[in-house]
Specification:
By secondary structure, this protein is of the alpha/beta class. The chain has helices at 16-26, 72-85, 102-110, 131-137, 140-153, 178-194, 213-220, 250-256, 280-284, 322-333, 376-380; strands spanning 7-9, 36-39, 42-45, 48-50, 52-56, 89-92, 114-118, 159-166, 202-206, 231-236, 264-269, 295-298, 311-314, 317-320, 367-368, 404-405, 422-424, 433-436, 439-442. The strands form 6 sheets. It has an 8-stranded parallel beta barrel with strand order 5-6-7-8-9-10-11-12, surrounded by 4 helices. The longest helix has 17 residues, at 178-194. The radius of gyration is 21 Å and the shape is globular.
Length: 443
Amino acid sequence: MKASAALLLASSLIPTTFASSLARRAAVSNANTPPVTVKGNAFFANNQRFYVRGVDYQPGGSSLLADPIADAAACARDVQYFQQLGINTVRVYTVDNSANHYACMKALADAGIYLALDVNTPAYSLNRADNASIIRSYNDVYLQFVFATIDAFAKYDNTLLFFSANEVINDNATSFAAPYVKAVTRDMKAYIKARGYRSIPVGYSAADVSENRFQMAEYMNCGSDDVRSDFFAFNDYSWCDPSSFTTSGWDKKVQQFSTYSIPLFLSEFGCNTNARDFGEVAALYSSSMTAVYSGGLVYEWSQEANKYGLVVINSTGVSPLPDFNALQTQLKNNPIPTGDGGYNANGAPSKCPAAAPPAWVVVGTDLPAMPANAQKYLQQGAGPGIGLSDTTGSQNAGTASTGTVSGTSGTSGSTGKKSAGTYLQPSVSLALAIAVGGVLASL
């Protein structure tokens, strides 16, 4: 059902020139890490093609709710090893949006290293448990946390990108959550624009689920520009050494994504079924893949119970493991490609995928409208970050969305369609139709 109400123009909420001026004055720049932008299906920095060559960096793993970018001493300790390894990006899954990150962000920038940042935490995130949970968890308290995280990192030129969510759709039973992932992506892009920040790319990190990964990629890249992702990333553990470009099936994925029009990269890779020699690095940065892929992130930096670590961290410092040496060798032997890699500068957006139960149950293109109580953040800013001390979280707090808006049209009007930079405050209940086992159901 379409909502009927007045449109709220984000562009009118704050004078653009004033907001841009504030953002520029607050920017923390470094010549080693010029801002990265999106052109066609590739990233660029200073008109040079940019490839993600990095690691997933969350010392202590998911069981330790800590912010590595706020720990200046540990960051300085690890940066020297990042340089030895030869990477240009670290991905961090959890940060404290109330903390000071200047020292670590500067240390990273001085070393020529960018940050790919997840804006969620376990407590402040979408809840995919069921339909009622996903609806309830998309609320104003959650968006305040997300927006405050953007505020904390938007000023740094080496903030490469933001992940709006990670692995929310993680099997055949959870694709009903896709409209909410896309709504958060849309909201983040709108907030960045309304607050006058540079155009920091926003996108999604998908799970290694072959049944609906491509549908999710199409879905995040369909519709009007204001709702489409700036990039798409997915986790891929299909190359298990010894393997090859064809044995792993990577050749088929390159073919499948050959016309994809936004940057694509691996947010996690590095199967550890066997000893890892990271032979996939040679393929990832070769002409076989660079027209479609923009690199990837190895999982993971520190050794945890799952044995994916490149180093051991303890009270005496950092000790590289054999996997560190193997990855270091592969990166050294397979440098950043020269030229533009054959990227596609003028690809067309994807067509929104049709429902295909049970793996893909989304019907239609409408998205949840931004919760009413969150719209003020576009004008006023998010305010202080709440940090990691509050473990109660947002999933059962705040006011949820109560209507839908179009995800395919830039035309405003009483039908509920919205234009770029606009949000509709609906007056009816959310009625997002999805196919569950082939049966249409209204939530």
